[in-house]
Specification:
By secondary structure, the chain is an alpha+beta fold. The protein has helices spanning 14-46, 58-79, 83-104, 106-109, 114-134, 140-150, 184-204, 217-221, 266-269, and strands at 225-235, 243-248, 254-258, 273-277, 283-285, 288-290, 293-294, 296-298, 304-306, 318-319. The chain folds into 2 domains: 14-179, Isoleucyl-tRNA Synthetase, Domain 1 (Orthogonal Bundle), CATH 1.10.730; 217-319, Nucleic acid-binding proteins (OB fold (Dihydrolipoamide Acetyltransferase, E2P), Beta Barrel). Strands 1, 2, 3, 4, 7 and 10 form a 6-stranded antiparallel β-sheet that branches. Strand 8 and strand 9 (304-306) form a beta hairpin.
Length: 320
């Protein structure tokens, strides 16, 4: 007996998520619609009772033969861990069911030949039962929902490909949607939640970096660190990460370009006092001459926080 044991979570396994990203619309259109039609028509024509199958046509037997092919390839692909290919095999079984209903058109035959409709709907429900088995390794929760609608008590992999899984005379439940549409806002909220948890874990597990190699006071004294007041601040054109500061440095004023646009809006910084290195040589950044470097601290979550005095001081005073 084949044991289908692909990894799963409540959102189904990793292979399914990858598959779903590319095939969600197809899944709903083919699998969901087929199962829904099969159960809806059973309730419409037979009050939810599974009808008996009568004499099979050549087309019925051809469809049944395709079941066997799907079972063989699906089983082999799962056993060899080719999960994407196995999912394609399971989807192919849903396509067989859709095609069978579309070609046999029981809704038209119901006007003239209910005996034939009984056979068609029996076979359609047997395909649905096969789908409940085939998708169990990949969609365990949806497969369980389908089994409940069909009145299936268990999953028996060896029955995959059979057309006697459901007994005539048993009842199927009222149809429910196998897949519910997820609004984009729900997806975005979940993504935001996961990102928030990720950042919280980064902060929680933060460890300070090792202290740098020793330096002397003379090395430090070479840096002319001063306090300036931000008179104006704006984004640098064609540079998403850069902000252009106009700084009152107590002398003639200066322009400094800093890569903190991801963490600050320009208007947040106007009027604040910041620490900057005053004796770095000027450097052109995106067409703007930067006359120093604003100091900032990188927090545990990667945010850059501008460094400044804890209380107001005169622009131009030195830090040391």
């Amino acid at each position: 007996m084949l044991t289908a044991n692909a990894p799963e979570t409540k959102d189904n396994d990793f292979t399914w998520r990858d598959f779903q990203a590319r095939n969600n619309n197809e899944l709903v259109a083919i699998l969901g619609n087929f199962v829904n039609r099969a159960i809806v028509l059973t309730h419409k024509y037979f009050n939810g009772v599974i009808p008996a199958a009568h004499e099979l046509t050549d087309y019925d037997r051809q469809t049944m033969a395709e079941f066997k092919d799907v079972k063989a390839t699906l089983s082999e692909n799962i056993e060899t861990f080719h999960f994407r290919e196995a999912l394609k095999d399971a989807m192919n079984l849903a396509r067989i069911g859709n095609k069978y209903l579309a070609d046999t058109e029981p809704w038209k035959l119901a006007k003239t030949d209910m005996t034939r409709v009984e056979t068609i709907m029996n076979l359609a429900l047997q395909i649905s039962a096969n789908l409940a088995i085939a998708f169990e390794p990949f969609l365990p929760f949806s497969a369980a929902k389908l089994r409940k609608m069909l009145g299936m008590d268990e999953v028996r992999w060896e029955k995959l490909g059979d057309i006697d899984i459901l007994a005539a005379g048993n009842r199927v439940e009222q149809p429910v949607l196998l897949f519910e549409k997820i609004d984009d806002s729900v997806v975005e909220a979940q993504k935001a939640r996961l990102e928030r948890i990720k950042q919280e874990n980064i902060v929680k597990n933060f460890q300070a970096k090792a202290v740098a190699e020793p330096c002397t006071y003379d090395d430090f004294a070479k840096l002319d660190i001063r306090v300036g007041t931000v008179l104006a601040c704006e984004k640098v054109k064609k540079a998403d990460k850069l902000l252009q500061f106009t700084i009152d440095d107590g002398l003639k004023g200066r322009t400094i370009v800093s890569g903190i646009a991801k963490w600050y809006q320009p208007e947040e910084l106007v009027g604040k006092q910041v620490c900057f290195i005053a004796n770095f040589p000027p450097k052109m950044l995106k067409g703007v001459e930067s006359q120093g470097m604003i100091l900032s601290a990188e927090d545990a979550d990667g945010r850059l926080v501008v460094i400044g005095p804890t209380g107001p001081v005169k622009p131009g005073v030195q830090v040391g």
